[in-house]
């Protein structure tokens, strides 16, 4: 018997005990046969799903037919069969997949499917199962949260299946302005190894506010994924950086040069950040740079010293 993770198998379609009579030339025997069908609680479009089929107390091979219909029963979405025999201990795992294109035009109408299984001439089982239109997830990321008009928006999409594993798929991408109007779009974009990178340059005259990047799977457009970013005019505040040596002159015999570094905005507030300083000397009009670089991790204090 197959051992399966319990979290994958949460819906029991059928666990039925059937009594059947088997006759030979001399006598007839009544057997009690148990048939089991185990499926996920939801069937996802475009995703491979497993169905467990079992028959107990049988002594001869049996063919099991599995058919998935639309609900109410109208037409076939997918079908398959399996043979249960002594070689597989009368237990088989079948993989089915529903083509999303079969329901592409009617996804609003069909929310359930009918699963039908026929165990030869012994038993038939039928169950209505909920249909899931989520074929995966799309995570969108922009390089900045705020852009100036005229800036280039760099963004990328990470595509995964319902188990959060990256996979190749085609998706649609749109950029919408604050009014929800699509300014830029691309359909059937291929996400190689689950990653798609794109860019869009904003016009210098655009509507400021909260913009949005929207993405959908091309095969199932019921699910949308989005991320927002702001477009507004902003200017980084100017600041001054001052390097002041402790001495106004340097003797050739001295082993060090001590310099104070200060960084302040024009309104007087200290600047918080990292400073990199290069030193050089000038001899007879020729400027030479000292190759070593000094790093200061905090320039927010009033002054800092470097010893080159």
Keywords:
mainly beta; 5-stranded mixed sheet; disordered C terminus; 308 residues; Immunoglobulin-like
Question: How would you characterize the overall build of this protein?
Answer:
Residues 138-231, 233-284 form the Macroglobulin domain. Keywords: Glycoprotein, Protease inhibitor, Serine protease inhibitor, Signal. Residues 34-132 form the Complement C3/4/5 macroglobulin domain. With 308 residues, the protein is an all-beta fold. It folds into 3 domains: 18-132, Macroglobulin (MG2) domain (Immunoglobulin-like, Sandwich), CATH 2.60.40.1930; 137-231, Sandwich (Immunoglobulin-like); 239-297, no CATH class. 0% of the residues lie in helices and 56% in strands.
Secondary-structure blueprint:
Blueprint: E1 11-23, E2 28-39, E3 42-44, E4 49-56, E5 62-70, E6 76-84, E7 91-96, E8 112-119, E9 123-132, E10 137-142, E11 146-147, E12 152-160, E13 169-176, E14 182-191, E15 195-201, E16 209-217, E17 224-231, E18 239-245, E19 259-265, E20 275-283, E21 286-296, E22 304-306
Parallel strand pairs: 3-9, 11-17
Antiparallel strand pairs: 1-2, 2-4, 4-7, 5-6, 5-8, 8-9, 10-12, 12-15, 13-14, 13-16, 16-17, 18-19, 19-22, 20-21
Domain Macroglobulin: 138-231, 233-284
Domain Complement C3/4/5 macroglobulin: 34-132
Keywords: Glycoprotein, Protease inhibitor, Serine protease inhibitor, Signal
């Amino acid at each position: 018997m197959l051992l399966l993770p319990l979290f994958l198998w949460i819906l029991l379609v059928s666990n039925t005990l059937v009594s059947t009579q088997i006759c030979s030339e001399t006598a007839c025997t009544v057997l009690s046969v148990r048939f089991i069908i185990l499926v996920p609680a939801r069937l996802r479009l475009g995703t491979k799903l497993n169905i467990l089929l079992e028959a107990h107390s049988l002594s001869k091979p049996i063919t099991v037919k599995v058919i998935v219909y639309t609900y109410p029963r109208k037409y076939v979405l997918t079908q398959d069969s399996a043979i249960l025999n002594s070689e597989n201990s009368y237990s088989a795992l079948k993989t089915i997949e529903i083509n999303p294109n079969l329901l592409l035009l009617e996804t609003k109408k069909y929310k359930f499917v009918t699963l039908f299984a026929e165990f030869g001439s012994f038993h038939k089982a039928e169950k209505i199962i909920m249909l899931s239109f989520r074929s995966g997830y799309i995570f969108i990321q922009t390089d900045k949260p705020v852009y100036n008009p005229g800036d280039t928006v760099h963004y990328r999409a990470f595509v995964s299946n319902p188990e959060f594993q990256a996979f190749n798929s085609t998706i649609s991408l749109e950029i919408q302005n604050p009014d929800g109007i699509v300014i830029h779009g691309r359909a059937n974009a291929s996400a190689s190894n689950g990653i798609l990178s794109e860019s869009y340059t904003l016009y210098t005259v655009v509507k400021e506010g909260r913009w949005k990047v929207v993405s959908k799977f091309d095969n199932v457009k019921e699910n949308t994924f989005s991320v927002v970013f702001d477009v507004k005019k902003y200017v980084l505040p100017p600041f001054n950086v001052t390097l002041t040596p402790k001495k106004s002159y340097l003797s050739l015999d001295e082993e060090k040069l001590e310099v104070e570094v200060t960084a302040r905005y024009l309104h007087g507030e200290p600047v918080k950040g990292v400073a990199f300083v290069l030193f050089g000397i000038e001899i007879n009009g020729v400027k030479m740079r000292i190759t070593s670089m000094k790093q200061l991790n905090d320039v927010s204090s009033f002054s800092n010293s470097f010893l080159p």
